[in-house]
Structure formats: C-alpha cells, structure tokens
Amino acid sequence: EAELSLLECRVCFERYGPGGQRRPRNLPCGHVLCRGCVGALGGPDHRRLECPFCRRVCGSAETSDCLPLLQLLEVLGPAGGSVCSALRRGGGAAGPAPAGLGLRLCLGGWGSLINPTGVAACRRSGRLAVAHDGKKRIHVFGPNGACLQRFGERGDAGNDIKYPLDVTVTSDGHVVVTDGGDRSVKAFDFEGRGVLAAREGFCLPWGLDATPEGEVILTDAEAGALYRLTADFKRGKLKKCQMIRSQLISPRGVAVSQTSGAIVVIEHLKAQGPNNGSTRVKIFSAEMDLVGQMDSFGLNLVFPSKIYTTAVAFDKEGRVIVTDVCSQAVICLGKPEEFPIFNPLISHGLSYPVGLTYMANNSLVVLDSGDHSIKIYSS
User: Fold this and answer.
1) Pfam families attached here (predicted)?
2) Minimal CA–CA distance to 292: which of 271, 272, 312?
3) Among the four 152, 198, 242, 332, which has the fewest Cβ within 10 Å?
C-alpha cells in the first residue's frame, strides 16, 4: 500500500513515469500529481489549479518536476519493479556503522524542507545551506540546528531560483547554487542578497563544489563537461569560466578534496534495453589526470549488490565517501590508490540519501530526500 501511494498519482491512480503525462510534478504545497492531472485541474486556461488534497490554490507555472521520484524511477528502470527490491537489495549485507559514529542531530522534515536536492557546509561558521523546492529555495541552518535564514525566491527575476539542483559554500562565505530552470549558476551572501548570476552557455549545470582557493568546480550533465569558475563574489564579477574536462557521461555529483585538490565526479550511465541505469565514480588529480574509477560492475566484485550513487564527498583524510540509494547507505570507497574497498559508514536510518558534506568538526552531514531531512553524524 505504501509503495502504491509513492509510485502512483493519487488522483488518476496511474503509475508515474519519466516523461509525458505521467511525469510527477510538485505543487507548492508539497503534494505530488502527474503532469496530466495538473493540466486537467488547471482548466482550459491552465492558469490556476486547486490542490485536491489541501485545497491550496496555485498557478500551473508554480509546479515543478519531483526530482526524488524521477531519480527513484530511474533506479527502478524502464521495466518497473518494486521499491522494496530496488532500495533494499543487499540491505542485510552492509553491516553496522563503525563504533562511535552516531546520529547527533536531525533537521528539517516535511514542511520545513520539500524534496531537498543539495547540502553544503560553511567550514568557517559551521552553517549549513540546503537547496530544496520550497517557496524560498535556500535554507540556512546554524551549527545547533536553528534555521537562520531563508532566501532564493521562486520566480523569474534575475536572482530568483527556478529549480535548484545543488549548492556549495565558498571559503569567503558565499552560497552558490546551480539552477536547472534557467541553466545558470547563482551566488548569494548569507543574508540572501544575490551577488552574481552566471549564464555561460551551460546546457544543464548540475553539481558543484568549492575549492579551498574559493573557486567552484561545476558539472554540466547535458554537455558532459566539467568547469572551473573563478569569480570575485564580493564584487559580483565572474573572472573566468574554463572547461577542464569533456566527454563525460551525464556527470552530476562532484566533490573536491580540501587537501590534495583531487576531484571526484559521478557519471550516470544510460540504461541499455530493459536493464537499469547505473553510475560510475571517476577520480581526477588536481591536474585533471584520471587516477581511478569504479562502476557498479567493479563494486559488485567486492559487494554483490547493485550500487547507485547519488552524492559524493571527500573526508579530511582524502577518502571518497558516497551515498547509495539501493542499500540506503553511506559507503567509504577509500583513497584513490586504495580502490576498490567497500566500508559501510551508515547502513540504517536512511530512506533516500541524495547529498553529502563534511563540517569543519568532521561531522558527516547526509541529506535524506526520503524524509526531507538533514542528518548529522559524529563520533
């Protein structure tokens, strides 16, 4: 029953699909309908519709794709399948989390955050920035969990955010967001003032992470490219946008080592025939030489279950940490020269982990889109 409620539109009771009239759409109130029902409820002029569950009125233009459901449909593959089989494969093989790593704090939740897509930590202040699908797209939490600021209005103005995909925080304290709605990169200070909007011919800017020098490494999922952005955020001036790698396959998540400058990227490989899509983790040196990679097949040699990676980070020792939505876990893959290793760090308590970051005190932050929360683990 829970699975049907998740995968079917509760108006027409048709199963959601990745495209066409069955594509899942978010309403501003947080409820999800298929595109066909959104159009039918909007009437002939498609201007206003009333949520059939909470009766909140909104405009059709205020709806947006439900990214977590679309990602889940991608994991299930074109042949369908059950959530149980997709998300719990190998669930009993991961083992317990290492001693001393425990859940310290849980933030957000439904209503506070709606379908969050990215999380980043400010190493200087300890604040957390979260990108989600609410009316104000960026929430800033303090180290103690208090919500300090909300900004990034949904709209069409230059610094409004249409559809945030990821977020990072630079060393000088600026929040940088990829906006899939108008294919741009936007920067704000922690008070919510927009300082820069870069539109450099990006096809679909997706993941991003800040380097220790204050630059931003950015993936373009449609162009298959990796960029390095250099900017004076205080003055709102973009200095340079340089492509540093091309011929990647749908790159999304990206992370930069704060010690070595190495860069790790998650590629999303297309499904062939009835098979499910898969992911591949690639690691480059600071000079952009490929030093290691690991796909689902390679990981299956050490862990006999499907791995589908949605987020990546480096810990302070330079080890690669990834989320896996199939086993609902956070996994350490080791340093690049150690591949392949498989060390589960968190193997319970997660629903659909989509974001990772480390705080200055080495606490591990996991963004869980399944229950719209931020979970902070520490030793």
Assistant:
1) NHL, zf-RING_5
2) 312
3) 242
